[in-house]
Amino acid sequence: MKPLALTMGDPAGIGGELTLRAWQALHARPCPFVALDDPDRLTAIGQQIACDTPIHVVDDAVAAIAIFHRALPVIPVPLATAASPGRPDKANARAVIGSIERATALAQSGEAGGVVTNPINKAALYEAGFAYPGHTEFLAALTGVSGKEIMMLASPQLRVVPVTVHVSLRDAMASLTTDRIIAAARTTHDALRRDFGIPRPRLAIAGINPHAGEQGALGDEERTIIGPAIVALRGMAIDVSGPWPPDTMFTAAARAKYDVAICMYHDQALIPLKTLDMDHGVNVTLGLPIIRTSPDHGTAYNIAGKGIADATSLIAAIELAAQLIAPDEAARDRTAKSRG
Question: Which has fewest Cβ within 10 Å: 75, 121, 170, 288?
Answer without folding.
Answer: 170
